[in-house]
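[step 3/7] fold_predict: job queued, chain A
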Amino acid sequence: MRMLAGYPLAIEVVLANLARQSVAQVLAGLDIGDGGLDRAGGKTESILKCVEYSHSNLSEEAQKLLLCLAPFSGFVRRDILGLYAQELQNLEPFRDYAFEQFDAAVQEAINWGLLAPMFERMPHLLSIQPIFPYFLKMKLTDQHETTREAFREGFRNHYLGLANSYHQLMKSQDAQQQQIGLFFCKLEYENLYNALRICLERQESISIFGCLDKYFESVHNTQSALLLAKEVCQAVEEYPEAWKIDRNNDQYVVALNLLAYCYLQTKQYTEAQQMYKKEIEVREVIGDRHSQAITYHQLGRVAEELHEFEQARNYYQQALQIKIEFNDRYSQASTYHQLGIFSQKLREFKQARIYYQQALQIYEEFNNRYSQASTYHQLGIVAQELRQYEEAHANYQQALQIRIEFNDRYSQASTYQNLGRLAEELREFEQARTYYQQALQIKIEFNDRYSQGSTYHSLGIIAYMMREYEQARSDYQQALRIYAEFNDGYEQAGTYHSLGTVAQELHEYEQARSDYQQALQIYEEFNARYEQASTHHNLGLLAEAEGNAVEARANYQQALERYVEFGDDYWGNIVREAIDRLSD
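[step 4/7] structure written:
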């Protein structure tokens, strides 16, 4: 539908084919200029005649030159068509083309409605009349096969250069440069993808894949990134073995790495682990020890998600050791940052702060302002856990300011979420609700359904604290549905625990006990000992409310053991008071 751009006749012709062909088949037919589209009612002839009318009114030279646009889909940049012409002119079939008249031919096509400026302020960005590429591809069938292949080669070479340019823009530390890269990748996606397909068919460079993956990462479209990574990795497995283990060509291991990362992002941890281990094996074969650090770092993240904490620590230390060995100071920052997250999960908050400060120092040394945002964000969490609220607020605001500066709207959601948690902890419930709603709005805007679960959970907490128990239950159930949808058992545990607190407040004691027991069962499955403490604590409160002192004391004792184990004196003292209360 995007390709057809709302043109009624084009839509009527093309969509009619879906009665007997899949979307993929129809798109493939359009891509090769297949003349066999459904011609019922003569609509295909009609639309081609519309294009033919405009095309026939072009000068003969313009018709010849505009055939060069046949490989393009939907969009073309007039300002760099000269670079494309240079790529074509390097090829034998186009040596006699009068490319100095290319721009004039483009203007003729604009005059006859075959091309049109997309934006008033940027007239060099042109949309292509939807059926025009199909029409040109049909014209190409009259050309010799050598010429048709030369068009594909010139198009591929052109986009290899553009992909590299767009990739560099998206990786820039300058926010405006990043946005320019994203803007062009969005417009050029089909052209970049088509050029990548040519590379895969010819078993050549897949560097365009890196550009497209970076685009998906930047717009947080993980599912599309995963589908593309699978397609590319499946294709490169058919490449010659020598290409895969060429020390001067790291594209194969990069493809494995990107596929593994997509698996990690979509919580397919076993698949991610397998791909990262395969990547390590290939890097060992080609003797690339330095780059193994990246893979060990990622294996640490996978082990961490699987709650294999000692294994995770070993992987991170291996990564750091290699980076130090090669004096790669800049990339040490990401591992220090991840060690901070790891220590934070183990509630080693002072150690986590040290790691984050080491990461921040390196980012400042290298003037990487954008990456500082996530480290300030994490420092805010650590300060909040240590009940240093002013410092936490300052760090969150630093993170938010940088993310706004770089127009990273998606990442602002997590900082609004944590500002909400901070306001909640300070019992500023209305302010907390405002922050949570800001976070939720962004997550809905970006269609990030999974992470909406945590925000609904947090909104449930606020409703609970404001004694709006039915609203709290509704929010928690929203969160639970999302976690169940994504098969995230661990997060379901926390929501069951919270549903138990609502039922307990409403004196629905059997429901409360059932919810707590479900939470406890999941925490035990994940060996989440610290989290078990609060559920045992609440089961103690529930038993005490029912007058069952023996059960209450047993649960309080279980909670106390875990609080002591993790050095949580604050909650440990509260439980001690509860045990003393039962002894009176």
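[step 5/7] annotate
The domain at 150-374 is CATH 1.25.40.10 (Serine Threonine Protein Phosphatase 5, Tetratricopeptide repeat).
DSSP finds 29 helices and three strands in the chain.
exit 0
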